[in-house]
Amino acid sequence: MSSHREAPEIAKDPVADSTDLYAFVSPDAPGTVTLIANYIPLQNPAGGPNFYEFGDDVLYEIHIDNDGDARPDISYQFRFTTHLRNQDTFLYNTGPITSLNSQNWNRFQTYTVTRVEQGGRQTVLGKDLMCPPCNIGPLSTPDYPALANEAVHHLGNRKVFAGQRAEGFYVDLGSIFDLADLRPFQSLQVFAKAQHFQNAPGVDTTKELNVHSIALQVPVDELTRGCWSGKDSGNPDAVIGVWTTASRRASRIIEQGRGKDSESGPFVQVSRLGNPLFNEVLVPMARKDEWNALPPADDKRFASYVAKPELAGLLPVLYPGVFPHLEALDKSGKSRADLLAILLTGIPKGVVPGFENFTGSTEADMLRLNVAIPPSASPSILGLIGGDPAGFPNGRRVFDDVVTVELRAIAGLTYALVDKSFTPDAAASEITDGLTASSPENPYLGHFPYLGVPYDGYHHPAS
């Protein structure tokens, strides 16, 4: 959550586990879109001696659909290679790492970026690109921002970065998965009330943890159908769909007595991510692994879980008397057309005045970004429901409060957009896990790659 350990099988394979996906018009680079796919969840910064790294045996991809069929028209592939300088030391580094070519850095990674177009045309955009090291501490990585900046590679009119970053997603996992106990309102939660719990601030479970990010900034016309780059947000060519996947070879052989394995066969998808929280909150446990293995084009088979989400039925039970209108809506059996639009088709013209990111009738879980909507001068972490059309669910920015947005949508706040006779419960506009992006624990950057400097192991507090 957003997509951390969201399915039984991928929870056992963190190197291939996508955690968050972001897609937004770059606020400081007009005419470009930034795409960020995060992997390897919940990293403790003091994770030595074997610090976190991408998988050499994993194919990481960011996909773009620009014609509404939920199949990739453009994919960016990332393949990593790990190098070892000194075979006779157990250390990640044998002295301070002051540059990416430091001989003190023993175990490092390089990568290749390839653009794949529909039809199979492939273009290698960059190879032997350096990742930065993990942020170990003040002695080993004394000027980490400089190392990270050195790892931002310019590929013509594109930028790319792959390496460790501070976790930008904020969520109170401890309370949410304890029977949906939202701390700011737990005095109203049936089980918490029985225990005499009092309302309390949210607790950021991902505070001071790290992830590994693949970040790419490209011109708008490299992503849109027909290389469109206009200003008309009502033009269908202005909307793209984005998702990320991780794949492994079909066969793996563990070599007895060598501590090694080998892979063969075609790549098979084991993880994917479009909208935040989709697999975590909507897809039942028995089908989460299946969802991870399928393309967005097959998501019609999961649409019933969006049309009648389990959590919408649970909220009135867990918070008795707080959501009477939601309870009546759930019991009516009406399809949640608002959620189907937000998550599976995009929002068509006429639902939200002056806004649309509709990709057509194909139901598919993708981030949908209208690239003609410029960045906001006064962004709201609540995105569209906060009056800011440049934010989620119009793509997703690193600071967007997607937990609150989706909680409020599921609680019925957005259903009035498709059924004018419905009145949302007062609580629907207040429900939240009690966290915001304004705290110093979320050190976002105002420039590429936007996610902050990763926390170092030396200063990381004991947990």
Describe the structure.
- The structure is a single chain.
- The chain is α+β, with helices and mostly antiparallel strands and 463 residues long.
- It is globular, with a radius of gyration of 22 Å.
- The model has no long low-confidence stretch (mean pLDDT 95).
- The longest helix has 9 residues, at 310-318.
- α7 (310-318) crosses α8 (324-332).
- The two termini are 20 Å apart.
- β1 and β2 form a beta hairpin.
- Strands 3, 4, 5, 6, 10, 11 and 12 form a seven-stranded antiparallel β-sheet that branches.
- The protein is built from ten helices and twelve strands.
- Helices cover 15% and strands 25% of the residues.
- The chain has one domain.
- It has helices at 144-150, 173-176, 190-194, 278-282, 288-293, 303-307, 310-318, 324-332, 337-345, 402-410, and strands at residues 18-25, 32-43, 58-65, 74-84, 107-117, 122-130, 153-155, 158-166, 210-219, 239-255, 260-273, 367-370.
- It holds the Pfam family DUF4331.
- This is DUF4331 domain-containing protein.
- InterPro entries: DUF4331.
Domain count: 1
Strand-pairing-aware structural class: alpha+beta
Q: Helical stretch count?
A: 10
Distance between the termini: 20 Å
CA-based shape: globular
SSE layout:
Elements: E1 18-25, E2 32-43, E3 58-65, E4 74-84, E5 107-117, E6 122-130, H1 144-150, E7 153-155, E8 158-166, H2 173-176, H3 190-194, E9 210-219, E10 239-255, E11 260-273, H4 278-282, H5 288-293, H6 303-307, H7 310-318, H8 324-332, H9 337-345, E12 367-370, H10 402-410
Antiparallel strand pairs: 1-2, 2-9, 3-4, 3-10, 4-5, 5-6, 7-8, 8-9, 10-11, 10-12
